[in-house]
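Dear colleague,

Thank you for sharing your sequence with our group. We've completed the structure prediction you requested, and as agreed, I am returning the results in plain text so they can be pasted directly into your records. Please verify that the sequence below matches your submission; if there's any discrepancy, let me know and we will rerun it promptly.
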Amino acid sequence: MYRVDPTASLPYIDAENRVDEDKAGDKGEVSELDPGASGTLTVDLKPGKYVLICNVPGHFATGMWTEFTVKP
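Please find the predicted structure tokens below.
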């Protein structure tokens, strides 16, 4: 998800315990994977700050996310 303001909170749906992907600016996803499995996602990103999250209910809230920067 592209972050215009990296200090702003992501829109969260408390009742579903997950980030609202539509409001957050979703750029693509890998379907849920079984433990030990892997997946691949290829996206064309413009320079800027982004966040990669796990949106399985509860995972984002427990720290399953990381920020990264795409440089020109």
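Summary note from our side: Strands lie at 12-13, 18-19, 48-53, 65-70.

Kind regards,
the structure core
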